[in-house]
Amino acid sequence: MQTYPLRSLTVQEAAKLQFKVVDSITREFQGSQSLSRGDLGISPETGKPAATARAEKVIARIFDAESAMLVRGAGSGAIRLGLHAMVKCGDKLLIHKAPVYSTTKTTLSMLGLMPVEADFNDLLQIDKVLEQEKDIKGALVQYTRQKPDDRYDMETVISRIKKKKNIPVLTDDNYAVMKEERTGVQCGADLSCFSSFKLLGPEGVGIIIGKKQYIHKLTEENYSGGMQVQGHEAMDVLRGLTYAPVALAVQAQVGEECAKRLKAGEVAGVRDAFLANAQSKVLLVEFEEEIAHRVLREAQKLGAAPNPVGAESKYELVPMFYRISGTFRQADPLLERRMIRINPMRAGTDTVIRIIKEAMERVSADVSPSDSQEE
In this structure, what are the phi and psi dihedrals at residue 372, rounded to the nearest 5 degrees? Predict the structure, then answer.
């Protein structure tokens, strides 16, 4: 299988981004403000907690955006609000011709949007679709891959859309922000949306960055006290953004080392191993036999996590061994029998390789049904 994983930041590049985060904090917070847990409720000056307003300025500065906003609903909620700010119910929305991420599909239905597909890997097809569908009002581009052969470049796709038709573009930056060199907004999009939970932040808080005109609209609508992201949550977002870059860069480095060692034949019975953005950047391990589900069962007993909490959240420390993503399964249903997905999380290469090897040894020993139950 040929995949086209996105380039991850090196540890040195990630450290530079960490320093930018801290520098941005010092430019918006005074003295002991950064050591506090923030305030609650609505400040008369900002219409939201003062700490939240300051944190949003920090986030805009980090990502070179005009504005930023913290919202309820994590990444999915951010995308829904972002699309709501850009387009109207019944509008046509340009999307990639590929299996749509499940929560995004729900969003399109909730907002009454009419998706129009174009293969973003083919720039001429983007031109053709925009010429044929003259009433397309906006575009949604997912940063990470939706199917194994996706290879499009974010900046190139955004530029092509904008050149052909001046419509607003929203990017889903989940699993990509702080891993890649630039966000969708830094590549020319109007809005980028992502989850703070995937960046070591608090549960349920989403982030929108981009054009003031859209974020201002959302801020005006988001006037209720109960809808605000409170000060202590905003401070936790900043703390997560500080530590996420280097942690994610180390994680990417471990994935690359694992792929190299497995390709070299270190573990018997592994046919191939490679990296892919599905949706987070992960290690895909293909076995010579259809033993994927049995390996996953044994890996869990050996300490691997069987499923995500927030997909790279602050709670996920041990390596995660789980089935390939839903969009990849839709692209090729047979892959699930012989392939698994591994995210190293905070683990080292030796730990990941050991669990793979020992799980396969247990499978080869024909573990009895009674032994396969969770301990």
Answer: -85, -5
> Is the CB of residue 40 less than 8 Å from the CB of residue 230?
yes
Write the DSSP string, 128-147.
HHHHH-TTEEEEEEESS-SS
70 touches 52 (CB < 8 A) = yes
> Going by C-beta distance under 8 Å and a sequence separation of 6 or more, which residues neighbour residue 54?
28, 29, 33, 234
CB atoms within 10 A of CB 217: 14
Q: In what order do the strands lie in the sheet with 281-287?
A: 270-277, 281-287, 339-343, 320-323
CA nearest 48: which of 24, 64, 72, 26? 72
How does pLDDT run across 214-227, given as a tens digit for each residue?
999 999 999 898 99
Instruction: Name the token pair of 344.
Output: 């190293």
pTM above 0.85, yes or no: yes
Beta sheet of 169-172, edge-to-edge order: 67-72, 205-210, 191-195, 169-172, 136-142, 92-96, 114-118
Specify the pLDDT at position 375: 39
Q: What DSSP letter does each residue of 151-197 carry, written as one string?
A: ---HHHHHHHHHHH----EEEE-TTTTTTSSS-TGGGT-SEEEEESG
Angle, helix 231-263 to helix 11-28, in steps of 10 degrees: 170
Residue whose token pair is 């011709």: 97
Q: What's the pLDDT band for 14 if we cut at 50, 70, 90? A: very high
Report strand pairing: 205-210 vs 270-277.
unpaired
- What pLDDT band is residue 149 in, cutting at 50, 70 and 90? confident
User: Could you please report the per-residue DSSP string of 230-243?
Assistant: PHHHHHHHHHHHHH
Rounded to whole angstroms, the Cα distance separating 360 from 346 reads 22
Q: Are 312 and 195 in contact (CB under 8 A)?
A: no
Q: Tokens representing 180?
A: 């890649």
Rounded Cα gap, residues 270 and 319, in angstroms:
18
The residues that bridge with 95 in the sheet, in sequence order, are 117
Q: Do 191 and 170 form a contact (C-beta atoms < 8 A)?
A: yes
Q: How far apart are CA 212 and CA 236, in angstroms?
A: 24
